[in-house]
Amino acid sequence: MNYIFPLPQPVRPKQSGNETAIFPGHRYPLRPEAIANGTPELAHAFQNGLVGAYRISQDKAEVEALDLNAQPSQGFVWDTALLTPPLRRLLVPDQERPCSAPNNRLTLIDARLDVPSVEMEHNTPTLTVTPRFELEWDTEAYASQLGVVRLVESLRVVHFEDGESTVLLDTEAAGVGPVLYLSQAVDQQAVIPICAFQAQAQQQCIEYGSAVTQLIPAELAGKAVSSVSVLEKYTVYFMQNAAPDQPDRYIWVPVHLPVVWGWSIRVQQRYDGVWDIFRKKLIMPMPSTEAPALPLWQSNSLRCLSLAVM
To answer: Do residue 296 and residue 150 come from a single domain?
Structure first.
């Protein structure tokens, strides 16, 4: 059984008629005369959609402030909707385009969760849940790569037959907020491409799903396991980049509202010895205006693993 429901779509304000097109994720020089005269919005450039840099790796994602003393001064637009008119006029476009120039667009048509299950993988019971997204990706403005970032807040605990328990994963203990979710199964990147690089003026429909799993050990540290519990909240960011191999000119930026989903699960053995789900609560995937619009993290899920499972 899948859970299917209509999704609200984000609405971006249109540019006014006397503005040239500015695109998210692109680097733009700043007009020297405007900097000399002072622009109050520069003091809050990040809140107004402009950063000096946005650097991401498996270990962290961080924003660098504008360096107005650099020659030439330049910045990256991470959200065109936040740009104030004075700040927009401060930017020097790569080329003059009419204000009606389009932008790339990602439409989230549907999102759902497959029912969690316990399946045998390599002779080991494995708890699995898969969020699935139906997307329409339209690169009307410029060629771009579509990717995904998954942040997680997680608590995974093993309970033993003697009544004791041990923590497998606790992101809250790191004290850094949500962390980048990494799976041990594949070679990881901070931003995972979900389709091929798409040329300008192209459109395609994409079915994207990536399973989240937890192995169910029969024993751990020499002690018999009675159950495993998982409590997690995920924030999924769909990102785009006009040229990921040119980080000095383009950065990854969100192309849709963040999507939040979660689950609370307890797995234990039935009377016949088969591992099964005895308790579950699901948070269906929904776009969120409360989650941070730009993903930031200071650690990843692999670094937060307990020494008990290392």
So the answer is: yes
